Amino acid sequence: MTAPLTVEFIAGGQGVWAIDRVVPVLGETLPPAASLSIVPAGQTASEAVAWRLKGTVSNARYSHRSELAELAIRQEGLGRSASRQAVLIPIRKSAAWWALAQDERRAIFEEQSRHIRIGMDYLPGIARRLHHSRDLGEPFDFLTWFEFAPEEEEAFDTMLSRLRETAEWGFVEREVEIRVSRVQ
């Protein structure tokens, strides 16, 4: 069995990604910074850090086997040379969300909100990776990293708008949108 991938998103003065803007969608924002790096968790930063967020890529949750199979076929990986833009979206959900049983959260997530289906509408142009942070004691529950080519930005914005209109988003109490561009 492979160990979960745990990474840190570190905002500071230098990095592979230039921070274009930080938008507080709901709740408190994050401090401004010039750049963003994604590094293995625990790596020491050699510079001043404005903020760091840690997340783990682990087992898929709220997904049926057929959905995972379709995602594996349709989604392309991160790090594509054409993907010069990215967005990090940290989200914290309410206590009411976490008080629900797993099957109740799944029903809101997919049966009502169509979260997976909406995301699939934008594959393969938009690649994404979800990081779980709740069990790590982080200020957010999820960190979602999206990468795409500049010509996919309008599609990304449409996808994000569609997701934010769902019943699931009624449980979001903090969300920050960090737009970045690749500099290296």
Textual characterization of the structure:
By secondary structure, the chain is of the alpha+beta class. The protein has a domain at 55-182: Alpha-Beta Plaits. The chain is 24% helix and 36% strand. It contains 5 helices and 8 strands, in the order E-E-E-E-H-E-H-H-H-E-E-H-E. The chain has helices at 65-74, 95-99, 102-112, 115-120, 153-164; strands at residues 5-12, 17-26, 35-40, 49-57, 85-93, 127-132, 142-148, 172-182. The protein has an 8-stranded antiparallel beta sheet with strand order 4-1-3-2-8-5-7-6. The protein starts with a strand and ends with a strand. The relative contact order is 0.25.
What topology, given as strand order, has the largest sheet?
A: 4-1-3-2-8-5-7-6
State the CATH architecture of the domain at 55-182: 2-Layer Sandwich
Largest sheet: 8 strands, antiparallel
- The overall pLDDT average reads 90
Secondary-structure-derived class: alpha+beta
Strand content: 35-45%
SSE string, helices as H and strands as E? EEEEHEHHHEEHE
Helicity, as a percent range: 10-25%
- How many beta-strand elements? 8
Shape: globular
* Low-confidence spans: none
Alpha carbon gyration radius: 16 Å
> Would you give the CATH topology of the domain at 55-182?
Alpha-Beta Plaits
